[in-house]
Write a structure and sequence with these properties.
By secondary structure, the protein is mainly α. The chain contains three helices and no strands.
């Protein structure tokens, strides 16, 4: 499923990182990175475990291993 981000989502992501975006800037950010994020969404869950580091740390923490 391809899903584009909108300016509200871009502004929320920036706020989460401690930044405030003006409405026009949030719209530009959404238009600029939205297509790339939508393209990567198609790969979600298809990468091999070793190519998806976010899953590695989660699995590692479940086994009690340290980084």
């Amino acid at each position: 499923m391809k899903r584009m981000i909108d300016q509200d989502t871009a502004a929320a992501m920036a706020a989460l990182a401690g930044h405030t975006l003006e409405e026009a800037v949030a719209a530009r950010v959404a238009a600029a990175i939205g297509p790339a994020l939508a393209a990567f969404a198609e790969l979600e869950g298809t990468l091999p475990f070793e190519a998806e580091p976010s899953g590695f740390q989660k699995a590692q923490s479940k086994t009690g291993e340290s980084a």
